[in-house]
Amino acid sequence: MNFKKKYTKMTIMLALGQGVLLGIAAVAIVGFILLKTEKPETSASPDTGVPANGPASAQTDDKKDESKPDTAAAGAPIPMYAKQHGVFSSKASAASFIADENLPKAASVHANGQFYVWSALGLSEIDADPAGEDGAFRKQVTVSPLACSSGEGELLRSVLNAKQISEIQDLAASRKQTEGEKKKDAFTTNIAAITAFTDDLNIIKMHILAHYADTGECVKLDF
Questions:
Q1: Do 200 and 127 meet the contact criterion of CB atoms below 8 Å apart?
Q2: Any transmembrane segments, and where (predicted)?
Q3: Beta pairing, strands 114-122 & 107-111
C-alpha cells in the first residue's frame, strides 16, 4: 500500500489549522471561566472596606468630642420647688408682669426658651408654698448644675443645698479670699447684692438660680 498519498501537504496544513483553532477555543473557554470566578471577589471587595471605615469614623467622633467644652453634669440633679406666678415668651414681658403685679422680690428665670416668674425656690414643698396668693402655685423643677468654664457650677450647687444664709455668706467669703481682695468676682458680687435686700433663704436661692439660668452655661432646668 502507498501511504504517501494519504498525507499530502494540504492534509497536514488542515490538521495544523484545526489544532490552532482548537487551541484558541480552549484558551477562550479558560479565560471565560476565570472571569466568572473573579466576579464574586470583585463584588465582595466593598465589604472589606466597611470594617476599615467603621473605626475611622469612630476615631473622628472621638476627636470631635475632645474639642467640645466640658459641660458634664457636676453631680446629681437637685429636685426643688418654686413659687410660680406666670410664664412668658420674653424677658421684657416677664419684667412688665413683675412690675404690674407689684412683685419686687420676684425674678424671671430663663428655661427652655421661656421666662418663668418665681418669687421663691426651695428644697421642700413648704419652701414654695403659695399661701393663698391669687395666681400663684407651686411648681416642681429639677436643677442640674453643670461643670461650666467659670467653675461656678459647684458653687451654685452649694447655694441651692444650703440650709442657712450663713452657709452662703461663708461660701462667698471663702471665694473672695481665694480669688483675692483686689479681684472682682461675679459670684461674691451677686451674693452681696442679693443678701443686701433680702434675708429670705428661698428668695436668695431663687435669684442666684435666675442669674445662672440666663445663659444656661452653668445650670440646666428640667420640668
A1: no
A2: 12-35
A3: antiparallel
The reported pTM is 0.66
- Cα–Cα distance, 85 to 95 (Å, whole number): 12
Sheet (strand 219-222) strand order: 107-111, 114-122, 78-88, 137-145, 219-222
CA dist list (Å): 145 to 118, 154, 157: 19, 7, 6
- Write out the H or E segment, with its range, that includes residue 215: none
Give me the phi and psi of 154, to 5 degrees please.
-70, -30
pLDDT bracket for residue 132 (50, 70, 90): confident
Residue closest to 159 by CA, chosen among 127, 126, 187: 187
CA dist 217 to 72, 115, 127, 144, 152, Å?
A: 11, 16, 26, 11, 10
Reference 148, options 90, 66, 46, 73; nearest CA is 73
Q: Report angle CA 156, 217, 206 to the nearest 5 degrees.
A: 40
Alpha carbon distance 161, 168 (integer Å): 10
SS3 93: helix
Q: State the CB neighbour count (10 A cutoff) for residue 53.
A: 9
